[in-house]
Amino acid sequence: MSGSDSDQLREVARLTRDGEAWRDRTVNLIASENVLSPAARRLLDSDFHHRYAEGHPGARYYEGTKYIDEVEQIAHDLMKEVLGADRVDVRLPSGTMANEAVFSVLMKGGGTAASHGVAGGGHISHARFGALGKRADKIVQWPLLDDGFRLDASAASALIREEKPRLVILGRSLFLFPEPIEGIREACDQVGATILFDASHVLGLITGGKFQDPLREGADLITASTHKTFFGPQRGVIAAGPGKDDAWWRPIDRAVFPGVTSNHHLFTLPSLCAAAMEVRRFGKDYATAIIRNAKAFGAALHARGFAVAAAELDYTESHQVAVDVAEYGGGRDVSRQLCESGIVCNMNLLPGEPGKNARNPHGLRLGVQEMTRFGMGPDDMARIAELMHECIVGQKDVSGECAALRETHPKIQFGFDIDDLG
Q1: N or C: which end of the chain has fewer CB within 10 A?
Q2: Where are the domains of the chain?
Q3: How far is CA 330 from CA 84, 123, 258, 346, in A?
């Protein structure tokens, strides 16, 4: 890019504005994204951008952190409350860094771990080529039921007893149904395995009292990002339930700092506080609306002839719907076609898919959480399914129709406005 500094700065500003304007005209179905409320977004802009604060509130390695300390303590207490956790660490910039910290402790010295493979919906940080692979000598993949979207608890328990993993990881990126934590807890106890539940995708459903309650069902730890169904800024969190004493928690605390973080994006802490308060106020209604919309969306897509996964199970219990689009050219081509027409989603491997080609898989992973936050309901889900059919099957550009649909839902729901900041 050539030109003067001022020309380049104006170009960056223009691209940023154009990107925001384009997003306002699109239907976003990326399952790992969400939008901040006006209040949470406003709180991102503060002097905290410029500051450093290593360590815990009240025990920093820098001076000048008085107000940062108070905000971080509020964030800590709020996340404990909405998660029902005894111990929480909010100093992670991302969910993957939360996983990295936990893996460095629980897999120190190597050993065996169990997790979902990428082809079975697992996250890359749980894989041999991700963060877990840097720590584990061996990673065994969970056995699934025939539908491919649910863990086989009986077979998994047998695998645990045979392989004796130090760490078992539940939770996925393609995550339609709850995990059978209680069904594998006994086997984990027999071999001394720790259960980590990666709740990144479903954290907002959990804090809304839906989907499942990992810490009460037997998980030892939760890790998560805070910007998917939990509609906060991009951060990470680690949480532990009852019975975890200081000696057990301390290595994880040390793994967060100084292990994987130094300064931890302080400017997002006020926004996280706002989001946690919104979850406390609106979380149940929001989670209920998400799951209702996801089921309606799956049914509407199925009614229009799409190969929607898990139809026999009412499609989903989360914010996600999975669709096999191999007959239309595969996930890569179809997702690009949809994006050009104003419907943004991502390609995704599906369980049991032959070839396991992550660069051109059979599937689409669709999430309804962002459009739900804009107040869309089941009728809107049916309209989106219709627009997808017109685009994919009818080869029609539906970008104008997407923009028109977005115009009917301009305001973010389930959150606080700027006026609430006082």
Answers
A1: C
A2: 41-274
A3: 41, 21, 44, 11
Q: pLDDT tens, 214-253?
A: 999 999 999 999 999 999 999 999 999 888 899 999 999 9
Calculate mean pLDDT across residues 186-207. Answer: 98
For residues 149 and 166, what is the distance between their CA atoms, to the nearest angstrom?
A: 24
What's the whole-model pTM score?
0.96
Task: Please tell me whether residue 163 adopts helix, strand or coil conformation.
Answer: helix
Strand 363-367's sheet: what is its strand order? 307-308, 320-324, 363-367, 346-348
Note the maximum CA span of the chain: 67
Rounded Cα distance, 61 and 56, in Å = 9
Residue 86 has pLDDT above 60, yes or no: yes
- Tokens at residue 40, please? 């949470």
The amino acid sitting at 120 is G
* CA-based end-to-end distance of the chain: 42
Task: Name the DSSP class of 135.
Answer: T
Cα-flanking dihedrals φ and ψ of residue 237, to 5°? -150, 150
Query: Quick check: 301 and 387 in contact, CB under 8 A?
Result: no
CATH of domain 41-274: 3.40.640.10
What is the DSSP secondary-structure string of 332-366?
A: HHHHHHHHHTTEE-EEE--TT-TT--TTS-SEEEE
